[in-house]
Amino acid sequence: MHTSSIQQNILAELDHELAQTRKTLERVPFDQADYKPHPKSMSLWQLATHVVNLLAFNTLFVQLDSRDFLDPNAPKPGPTPTSHDELLARFDEYSATLRQALHGSDDEKLTHNFKLHRGEHTIMEMPKGAAVRIMGLNHSIHHRGQLTVYLRLLDIPVPGLYGPSADEK
């Protein structure tokens, strides 16, 4: 009987989802960066940047044991990308860093807890592997889904992510 590891499962899922996310980001029009479908919504560019920056955050789950939002010295993503090329370059860089961190980890390390907190207030504490899946991948997929709605509302063809989209039939 063949069993696969937590690490192998996360890497397989990550590779699939990163390819789908890049396809989506490739269609985000920088010339409509300020577009918001609703006053409470993030702008198109804020949302696209957030999807990319979540990759760096996900890397923290693998490499560190905790992250305090009040720590002024804690790692933070770079400034907002100022072009479509810069957004995709950051996506590629953060994707490679996350893959490298996961390849450098193992099942045993991924069972260690990660704590996300703001000072004494714990926001989340769970095994690193679960944090990568829930707060990393699932969170990113959620926001990618929002991006596809923005694309639809802007009449930009939506890529097929789990099969053909209405635009690809």
TrEMBL record:
One of its GO terms (molecular function) is metal ion binding. It comes from the Bacteria. Keywords: Metal-binding. The keyword Nucleotide-binding does not apply. A divalent metal cation binds at H50, H139, H143. Belongs to the DinB family. This is Damage-inducible protein DinB. It comes from Hymenobacter sedentarius. The lineage of its organism: Bacteria, Pseudomonadati, Bacteroidota, Cytophagia, Cytophagales.
